[in-house]
Amino acid sequence: MKQYGVLVVDDSAFMRRSISLLLENDPQFFIVGIARNGEDAVEKVQRLQPDLVTMDVEMPKMNGLQALEQIMKTSPVPVVMLSSHTAEGAAETIQALELGAVDFFLKESLIRDRDNQEITQDFYYRLKSVAEAKVQVKPQVGNSKSKEKKKIKSSHTELIFIGCSTGGPSALQSILPRFPKGFPIPIVVAQHMPPGFTKTLADRFNTLCQLQVKEIQNGECLLPGTIYIAPSGFQTKFEKKAGEITFQVIEQTEEKVLYKPCIDVSLKSAAPLFKDRLLSVILTGMGSDGMQGCEIVKKNNGYVFVEAEESCVVYGMPRAVKNAGHADGQYPLSQMYQEILSFLK
Prior knowledge:
With about 350 residues, the chain is of the alpha/beta class.
């Protein structure tokens, strides 16, 4: 049984103890050390070489974001942010994910629900996946060749759908800002996040992108030149009304699914409407969300690209789609934008 050494970083003695006790309830985790602020964290990451770091945001001397940036430069290691569920906390969490943090959890929920087996087991599962994650220090140079590139040309694509989970925000940052102003095809993104965080994600990308970026509202029409972020805590479906494609944002669907938003749910509704005019892109993420949806995309003659293992933080979702035989192309993140453009020509 593989074990993972964890450095717990928090300025609160209560939180350090609570997080340590929670982690030690799983025999695969052991605490290699604790840090009370960012400076302490940077030094102990170098000296103790943990497999994983849990990082608070607000701390004296050096905060969690500053410490994360230093760690990524000097001693890259998987870092998980423990976030407060506030508007300010959400904004800081999005920044942390851009800086290289591989996942985040809501601190209060972890402590409050520590006796809930389903929540704690999900926490342990995700941490173990994170501990095995590849930390991307900087964008890769786009000079590697895809081993299974297919010559697909399409001049009539009407929707680009991007699905991602763990590692997704930083992956999206390498793609979405590159789409030029006036790009005619709408882009819809489903990123796994807790409720309340996708609005902040959309607002953040709206400052970085040349296209308008917004969180999807129930009933609004799909328009060109816009990047839409599916809202967390809900399912986003596509429907056709009076000749226009609109979004249906609902709390639950007939089928029971783990994620909100769920990539499978969105693609299953999009594929029959767009058929061969749909390009689906599955990026980094743990689990297999997107596999069933991509199967429906292929049955409706749509196209599917997946991120290559070499650039994924976690290769779970792209691997599931590829292994099921639904991928038309597999590309490293550094090439994905150019491959999308080449496909559209």
